[in-house]
Each structure stands twice: as C-alpha cells, then as structure tokens.
Amino acid sequence: MNFPDPADEAAEREQQLIALALANRPVPQMTYTGECHYCEEPIDKGHFCSDECRTDHERIQHALRNQKVA
Hints:
By secondary structure, this protein is an all-alpha fold. The protein contains two helices and no strands. It has one domain.
C-alpha cells in the first residue's frame, strides 16, 4: 500500500479492521418466535416487548456469563 498521504493510509487500514471485525463477529443466537424472550408476551416484531424486558434480559445474561464457579 503506497499512499501519498498518511491520513489516506490510516483510513484504509481502519476500513480493513472494520471489515475484519464484521467478518469475525459471532452470529446472533436469538430468532423471532412471536413472543418476548423475557416475559413471553406475544409480540409482532423484534425480540422484546419493551425496553425494560430487553434490559432485564441483558442484565441476567451478563450475570450468567460472568458467574464464577467456586
């Protein structure tokens, strides 16, 4: 890569890093079921019926991931 301007080179490298990160991101595990993933209320679209349910679900998932085995 020969760029006349260091800013152009930095921008190109940034785009390469973004493309690499997007290519290696994990596949989302949730699928649409017609019910809220937290409270199981019927919904028309998305995964949660409200921001509160989404926040509660994320909080619980975070706690489960960071749980330490004694």
